[in-house]
Amino acid sequence: MTRRSISRPALLLRSTGLATGLAALALATACASQPRKEVTVSYLINQADYNGALALAQERAADAPDDQATQADLTRAQVAILLDRARRANFEGRYADSIELLEQAEALWPGQSEIALWRTKSVAQQAEYLREHARDAEATGDFESAYADFAEADRIDPDSPSARIGTERVLLRANHREGLGDAYYRKGVRALREYRAAEAVQNLDAALKYSDDPRHVDRRSEAASLLAEERMRIAEEFERQLLFRAARNEYRLAKLIVDDLPDADGGLERTTVEIQVLDFLDEADRALILDKFDLALVRVERAAAITTVQADAVEAKRKEVVEAKLRHLYQEARELESDYAVLPAIAAYDELLEEAEGFYDDAIARRDSLQQNVELAGRLYQLANEAESTEDQLDYLRRINLFWPTYRDVATRLKALGDN
């Protein structure tokens, strides 16, 4: 399922030249068909001429900035435009856009019933869309996306328990996939189910019989605190074991139960940073596969800059990247050498030795041998040019051909001299 794009529309209340012209034309038409005294902001709003209503309201508000009635008309016109846009966004399935527009309208006119009605409708539809998308993500194993969508659905529509339950489930499933075992998963599910059941019974009892008895509220709070404390202890143990993704999920679970948990907030912050370190190291591995060694080193350095407890792992990855780069440079130099690309091979060995701070395997000996061959080939080629007999020329050229068959025109000259 493809996620709908969620824009951030601005509150556009200042008319553009085209909008102003259309509004003026609409206003003139209304004036021609109605007596002047009947052309009011309310009349234009009722006619769904929202641009015309806004233009008239702005004109009258500018003429009478201290008049409460004209300012109220301006607010009503602004809200009418926002409400119209919100309705259209809702009909088009852009529920998040609709909610934002309605929140802007509500800020202008708090408590207006139609705004509240449409906001309730859009929130419910957006929450259902998020829950549906979360379930799809969970089905494909994308637990992080599922968690984000369930959590957002729970935030905007807290009265529906399905998003909260879905959030708990994907966090436990994510940890189960991290290799924490079936017993962990079953225990976590059972604890959360028992907590929810106890909460439901206590809330029902309080509603029916004990609305004035604070003991039920106290028991509910105590149960929540105990369960949250258990998730916190599990999170801290995972964190000590450097299982940062599992630890973060447990901290998230704890905060689902009791939101005001400073220790969980701190744990979330720590584990989120360390997970980012792991992500950087994963990106370094992917860069290594593509032989992008400089990119891999950048990712390692970013990890090093933020970690507090994974310094050893980061340093090990740095050494791995450096070694992989040197090995790659060495292999490239050897291939050039094997292809008798002597001068490029020398340059490749020089680059390798510079990267390796002067030493790597037998690179120095191979580079020096190639440099000697360059000097020797030059001397032998000069002697061949100066030789008076064909046999002497052949002798010098054959010697060059033994270690550098692609040197200058040696192969062509040998063929011309009848050498097989």
Automatic annotation (TrEMBL):
Keywords: Coiled coil, Signal. Residues 319-373 form a coiled coil. Residues 1-19 form the signal peptide. InterPro entries: TPR-like_helical_dom_sf. The keyword Coiled coil applies. This is Tetratricopeptide repeat protein. It comes from Engelhardtia mirabilis.
